[in-house]
Amino acid sequence: MRDEDLQRAAMMLHHRKAGLAQGDPIAAPIVMSSAYHLPQVQAGGHSYTRAGNPTWDEVEAQLTLLEDAPSLAFPSGMAAISAALMACVQGGGRIVLPSDGYYVTRVFADHFLRPLGVDVVFLPAKDYGAADFSGAAVVYIESPTNPALDVIDISAVAARARAAGAKVIVDNTTMTPLLQRPLDMGADLVVAADTKAPAGHGDVLFGHVAGRDAALMARVADWRRMSGAIPSPFDAWLVHRGLETLELRLSRMCASAGEIARRLQGHKALLALRYLGLPDDPDHDLARRQMAGFGFLIGMTFADEARAERFLSRCPMIAQATSFGGVHTSGERRARWGDHVPLGFIRLSVGIEPIEPLWVAISSAMID
């Protein structure tokens, strides 16, 4: 991680200090109230929890420090994604999305935006570099893509999209703001599922939207308030606590993923291996320029579905789960959801286990 990212992480740990009075709790409290004392509407403060909550304020302050931009909390990553899209597109508008990105984003656009008169265009991530964005209202970028780990040149694509008059939304879930900063590369909005590494413990759904355009963020806030897509105070508190250890966990996860990927290179059980930190990965050079680290995700391709599933079931240190970014190493054969990957492809998310026991478990499970 870069020095400025470490500085943000350090500041985040002490973001409450300036506002503390004698005897105040160091840890953020959970405020479980739906309504607030409101004798005068114009006097300010919280009014109703659908519009705001003190515990949200705390986690949004953390996210704002990490993103270096105003941030709004949502009850899931998809709530954040749908809010950003709804804030930017209208009937008759066109949006461009990756055909090989997160499948639920594709389903949302196809099943809900298209019937509202939105022209939905799907492009493979690798085609973004040469795509014509004329007439697009939104260009939606996912980089690296989930699950294939293809990298899009965010700066170049964002510049071309904005020149064409489009808003640029970047899904930064796989990297977090400590490893990649899309707003600094020209994005109008960043969306992320904080369910993953930011919360980190597999016990809460959460998401956020960040952006520096005040009017655009106001539309996102209005969507949250009027749609009721709000997080609970307890969930916000869990994410606040998780974020305090994000830098520590992320450092361990990325270091372990890099080492495991190096050891897996050339393994006879694999047809292909993807990790952006490997010098021979096709997107390594772009990832090195664009990111402050290579992440914790590894793509492993076995010869077929049966071998992939056998590996997952054999390994005692891989949780078979459809999520990633947690303290537990997890893996999933992503083709079962219809993702554009080979049947034997596994998305491996490396956790915080000590590296040697984890490697022994992984390598032993790969022996036929």
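That was protein one. Protein two is written in the same sequence-then-structure order:
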Amino acid sequence: MIIIEFILKDIPNLKYFEWNKIFKLVSGESLQNFKLAYETYGVLNKEKSNAILIFHALSGSSHVYRDNSNMDGWWDEMVGPDKPFNIEKYFLICVNVLGGCYGSTGPSSYDQKNNKEYRLDFPMITIHDMVNAIKLLIDHIGIRKLFSITGGSIGGMQALDWVIHYPEMTRSVILMATAAYATTFNIAFNEVQRQSIFSDPNWNNGNYSKERPPINGLRLARQIGHITYLSEDSMKKKFGRNLQNNPKLLFQFTQEFEVESYLHYKGTSFTERFDANSYLYITKAIDYFDIRKNQKLIPAFNHIKNTKFLILSFSSDWLYPTRQSKEIVYALKSNEIDVSFAEIDINYGHDSFLIDCLDLKEITFNFLNNIKI
């Protein structure tokens, strides 16, 4: 957490929204108050009609664009001058979710009521809770209708929840590599990751110290998660069966293969920037996500009338495969909602929406450019 606090200090554009009233949650529990960290880019026009709300993925933050900071943004490939989300044309908003650890209230935050950090006393949250908190911020800014909303993965889940509950505030939606509900497969992988954290002796039922966090458990959780973000082809192309600094096999339990070393690196670097308890809460929120009504998706969209949709999937994404995007497309078309769909042929797996992809840029740019501000 010390490193995370250092990261936040390096973002001059970071702002905070505070809600000092009781905030009721889907679980039936409440927060006495909360704080959201957010960043904005570009200028909100006089009519307040050019705002785009960007939802981040599981381990993301509000820092979607580098801007005038010393840190790369997590979506610099898509945000900036002459990019699809053009800061010279649109007013962009990105918020660290409730339950996160990049400035927003979460399990590592201080609970004023009990004079200590929340830890596992933090109530269970859902995607809808995250969205409702962000809705209060958007109201505070004074935006009545968003030009567009977008997100990939869990960010796409937030976008879906938003448009279902606030369709009158949403002109267009861009969904990437996401789904209408967490599948058994998704829940299974999330549970294994959580068990990895639970098994770390330093986790101490969530009451770990800043000096001794459950690094080993969080590292393993991220390694498992990272495998699901890649594809077999991308791993084969990048690593193959290449050995790590060895001319031959050592026949030892060491990091002999390049892919082993890569996963250890990704896992270790993640422990330096994320809170283990936040990881538990956010993965559980994904598990709870299901916008269907009585196991049927079509009725979930029957009240949406004037919103345009762009649904994008990636051919190599096995975490949220194309069939799940097509399920959303079918449900929208069944309600005669304006929807465009494309499966982008790329071998980078689930993380494809985060890399430099020309097709992704062109399709997104054209979709936004065909809607008048």
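The longest helix spans residues 127-141. Keep this in mind for the problem set.
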